[in-house]
Protein DMR6-LIKE OXYGENASE 1-like
Amino acid sequence: MGDLGEAFIQAPEHRPNTHLINSGDLISPDEIPTIDLSSLIDPDHDKTAIAKEIADACKRWGFFQVVNHGLPADLRRRVDETMAEFFNLTTEEKRKVKRDEVNPMGYHDEEHTKNVRDWKEIFDFFLQDSTIAPATTEPEDTDLRKLTNQWPQNPSQFREICQEYAREVEKLAFRLLELISISLGLPGDRLAGFFNDQTSFVRFNHYPPCPNPDLALGVGRHKDAGAITVLAQDSVGGLQVSRRSDGQWFPVTPNPDALIINIGNCIQVWTNDKYWSAEHRVVVNSSKERFSIPFFFFPSHEVNIEPLEELISEDNPPCYKMYNWGKFFVSRNRSDYKKLEVENIQIDHFKA
């Protein structure tokens, strides 16, 4: 990606070494729980114990890791190889499927988080090809548009492997959604209907070595907008999470057998702040490239996000006003594409 231009430089208070807990300090990064999902193989097994573990993790961290998650190891190997092969193409070749403001899927190397450019390149594709979304961010505009994926000619198996991976991760996302519902004392299928015509997508991230990793970030601090993120990462490391209790940053140690799960804004709003959508970021280094694959589990564009009626009461009034997911999604997507003059949309803008 060349030299570190001004667009990449973080403000001093947001640079990688600020407010960071090191793994050798008293607070260990393994405080993010690791939850074993092997008992889910038996459909008759009582899910209450796992649901309680998830509840504790969602309240305290908004992050946890899962092992024995059911994602085939061979598929993971194939998608990793295919992703690396794509990013190894020439810039000219990759830009044949470059995204723009009209088509939000495809290759992009100018992603912005909170109006600072990220040190990375990405490739995005929808789970459902095509996906329906609002045509504009204007509240009164009811027009919709059909969004489709862009697929490169090379690698030759790229589309097939991407779609196979997305379908497998979607299965895990629905299992986690069921467990989150149970953890709240709700029926397991309480949230599933919000995802009938989902806007979910998969992202391939490539973080090249950075000449000044003390000044830039692979991804700036942010909270995920959707319901659940399922992250596969390599062994290099770089993900950092802000602890709910005090805002300190701490690193997440890579586990080759685990997937990282984090709660997004939708879950935080549905649970009326009981569960936490944690701020997180990615640091880069000067010697090793890093790859990761987040699956962003997003509701249908029609869904209005607000605290669930079963979870609010006179003693626990709604913390948020209702907002439409589709309009929120379109607004966030456009702010990721390029630098704006204003802060991009956040759930705090809908605080009651």
Summary: Confidence is low (pLDDT under 50) at residues 23-30. The longest strand covers residues 290-297. The radius of gyration is 19 Å. Residues 133 and 207 are 29 Å apart (CA to CA).
